[in-house]
Design brief:
Elements lengths: L1 H14 L4 H21 L17 H16 L9 H6 L16 H18 L10 H29 L15 E10 L3 E10 L10 E7 L8 H19 L1 E5 L6 E5 L1 E6 L9 H14 L3 E5 L1
Parallel strand pairs: 3-6, 6-7
Antiparallel strand pairs: 1-2, 1-4, 2-3, 4-5
Helix pairs in contact: 1-2, 1-3, 2-3, 2-5, 3-6, 7-8
Length: 299
């Protein structure tokens, strides 16, 4: 199955409850949305030729699947699941909200998203009501910002790996680290590790060292100590659940069961970092104490 569907396809198939046609439709829409997201950031990207969903570049497919996951987990306001109401409120391509140009890419994506969600509900499938336009915009903004942070951190890790071992900050425990991004891993369910690092030169007779990274671009700047601590613990617990302990790596050419020696949750710093540094230090210590095996760091 992994060879036929790829990592992103398996995640979509899981979300579609085993329905291949629905899984392909989800990936097709996510592909359009992902491309639109890149366009709004002014990023030029290229895709491989051919019409097959299964022939896409792995990193692009992973980004598409992560967009599906972002919609599922979005906390923004949603419309009701009532199909009659949704039909009455169906958005029109030629009637965007005030301030949005007719034909704008993000509005086209939203109209397509609303159409798919309505079809799912009409078919009796289990699904949340669609995000309202404002919630959809926020979800896409956060998604794009998160991808940009992931790319920044992946570049930082690659530069770190190129240094002599004694000079490294992040990967000192590796002799020859291999850095893989958006790696499908199966544990509680199928997810994508933002970065998985595996030792290419393990000691004779020993399994390779494996570490995983989860990158978070959250605006934590205004959080007080207790909600900040709760957020860090929640993120650390999720990282351990999906990317820690023993898991199955599903990337073609790297398929194996692996024990993860270290999980790190890394938050974007700068303006998103909490202003009370003493409270932040306490929250980090408490999160690491509460969730053994996970390190919490800020960029």
């Amino acid at each position: 199955m992994a060879a036929e569907w790829g990592e992103a396809g398996l995640l979509a198939l899981s979300e579609a409850r085993g329905n291949p046609a629905k899984a392909q439709a989800m990936l097709a829409e996510a592909s359009r949305e992902s491309a639109g997201s890149a366009a709004t950031r002014g990023v030029a990207g290229k895709r491989g030729g051919g019409s097959s969903l299964l022939a896409r570049d792995a990193s692009v497919s992973a980004a598409e699947a992560k967009l599906l996951q972002a919609e599922l987990e979005a906390s923004g306001p949603r419309l009701p699941k009532d199909v009659k109401v949704l039909k009455q409120l169906s958005p029109k391509l030629d009637a965007p909200p005030p301030g949005i140009e007719e034909g704008a890419g993000l509005w086209r994506d939203y109209v397509a998203y609303r159409g798919r969600r309505l079809k799912e509900l009409l078919n009796g499938e289990t699904a949340e009501g669609p995000l309202k336009w404002e919630g959809y915009q926020e979800m896409r903004t956060c998604y794009a910002r998160g991808l940009a942070f992931e790319q920044t951190m992946a570049s930082i890790l690659e530069a770190d790996a190129a240094l002599p071992r004694a000079q490294r900050r992040w990967l000192k425990d590796f002799t020859q680290p291999r850095i893989e991004t958006h790696v499908g891993v199966a544990k509680a369910d199928l997810r994508f590790a933002d970065v998985l690092v595996i030792e290419e030169r393990p000691p004779a007779g020993q399994p390779p060292r494996v570490e995983t990274f989860s990158f978070k671009s959250r605006d934590l700047s205004s959080l007080k100590e207790r909600p900040l601590q709760a957020q860090l613990i929640a993120d650390a617990s999720e990282a351990l659940r999906y990317y820690g302990e023993t898991l199955a790596i599903r990337r073609p050419g790297l398929v194996q069961d692996a024990h993860v020696q270290r999980v790190r949750v890394v938050y974007e710093g700068g303006k998103f970092k909490p202003q009370d540094l003493d409270a932040l230090d306490r929250a980090v210590r408490n999160a690491e104490s509460d969730v053994t095996g996970v390190e919490v760091q800020f960029q």
